[in-house]
Amino acid sequence: MKLEQRTSLKQLRALVAVADTGSFTLAARRLHITQPAVSMQLRELEAIVGEVLVDGRREIRLTLAGETLVRRAREALSAIELAGIEILAGRGVAAGTIDIVAITTAEYFVPRLLAEFGRRYPDIRFRLSVVNRAEVYAMLDERRAAVAIMGKPPSNMAVRRIPFAPHLLSFVAAPDHPLAKKRNIPPASLTDERLLLRERGSGTRDHIERYLKRHGVNALRADELGSNETLKQAAMAGMGIAFLSHHTFSMEEAAGHLVRLDVQDTPVEREWNIVVRNDQPLSLAVTTLMNFLQGEGVDLIGGRDRSVGGAR
Fold it and tell me: Is residue 309 part of a domain?
């Protein structure tokens, strides 16, 4: 068989892409080649192996030989990528792929950060996942992410937390809401209002619950609507008052669709953190990203704004 002499990297990449995507079309899109080219690479590989590797027309599945080869192909491709990273690191050049996970609210600014980071460090690539806080914790715990961008770090895991920007949260409502034009609103005024909440377990939900508890507020009505986007749309429609990160509603506020309410002791200020595991060695690429976020993050995301919620 002599796979090591006859198999090409292109064939291995095609096989792994089909295994990952479950589709010849998606595999071709990932590899930036045509679908017939992917099929040809797999046919040639199967001819070398002497067995079918991918079975099924509509539902793609790997044969036993295919699973074995995919597992080893991943190792080989990863080893070659690491060799290139190590060679560049020897020259003092940061390179490689970073698996990053960000909390859902961070999706409003993380792409801006990574776009600038990518321009400055073109040899560093990244895979970004945007999920809720529970999944961020899980991805760190299972080592599926090297870096997390979030607020509150997990308490049951040995991690390193590096603050890089302030995180402001305020109450918002439609411009015609009765509280929209009032100043220095006592927190007790929220008791009779309909509050719009994120799902339990989200960082934003945790922040508002702590605020209400600290000020002794028990809202008569609170509706759980889920995502930041749903909360914004509901607040703009006049459904009630939402408590949101400033990152999520800046455009709506600028357009006059939402106003920040001048509630006492707001904006609530928290921190955006870079979180990494203590027991996970940091690559040069990860260290470069961390230094970039610490040095440039606050200015790139406009995190220095501490204006009072209702001031216009």
Answer: no
Whole-model pTM? Answer: 0.67
Question: If pLDDT is split at 50, 70 and 90, which confidence band does 248 have?
Answer: very high
DSSP class per residue in 105-117: GGGGTHHHHHHHH
Residue 122: cis peptide before it, omega within 30 degrees of 0: no
- For residues 267 and 246, the answer to whether their CB atoms sit within 8 Å is yes
What total of structural domains would you count in the chain? 3
Domain coverage including residue 265: 167-269
Percent of the chain predicted with pLDDT > 70 = 93
Q: Which residue has the tokens 């539902």?
A: 59
Kindly state whether residue 307 falls inside one of the protein's structural domains: no
191 falls within a domain: yes
- Let me know if residue 223 belongs to a domain: yes
pLDDT at 305 over 70: no
129 Cβ contact list (under 8 Å, min separation 6):
99, 100, 101, 102, 135, 139, 145
Strands 124-131 and 96-103: parallel
Of how many residues is the chain composed? 312
Residues 132 and 111 in one domain: yes
pLDDT band at 132 (very low <50, low <70, confident <90, very high): confident
* Buried residues in 20-42 as b, exposed as e (16+ CB within 10 A): ebebbebbbebbebeeeebbebb
